[in-house]
Amino acid sequence: MEQEEAERSTNIVASTSEGSDLDPIARVRKLLFRQILVGIKDGRFFLGNFHCIDKQGNILLQDTVEYRSIRRSSPSPTEQRCLGMILIPASCRTSCHVDCSIEEQLSLIQLKE
């Protein structure tokens, strides 16, 4: 069991070091269909599967759920609703988190060029 985990972590590290040599399009392709949490300026968050990004940095998510804070007192401090496919303009985006291992996150940081 430990040997399998060591091999798996070695493979991730190897693919991470290879990922830094890939062109931006290949690196973005690695994000396809990954679950991404995107925050926007008004405090809402969107959790969905990454579908695409355009040259301006607008992100298209599918199977998206919106989370927002509720200011009034209630049992749950957040409210959620299912939206489906949405486009998040780059001008509204404040944060973007990819659901993956730490090693993969480090390789994806290099997308900010």
TrEMBL record:
Query: By its UniProt entry, which SUPFAM superfamilies does this protein fall under?
Result: Sm-like ribonucleoproteins
A cellular-component GO term for this protein: NatC complex
| Pfam families per UniProt | LSM
Under PANTHER family, the record lists: N-ALPHA-ACETYLTRANSFERASE 38, NATC AUXILIARY SUBUNIT, SMALL NUCLEAR RIBONUCLEOPROTEIN-ASSOCIATED PROTEIN B AND N
This protein's name? Sm domain-containing protein
Gene3D superfamilies according to UniProt: 2.30.30.100
Annotated Sm domain ranges read 29-88
Which CDD domains does this UniProt record tie to the protein? LSMD1
Show the InterPro entries listed in the entry: LSM_dom_sf (IPR010920), LSMD1_Sm (IPR034110), Sm_dom_euk/arc (IPR001163), snRNP_SmB/NAA38-like (IPR050914)
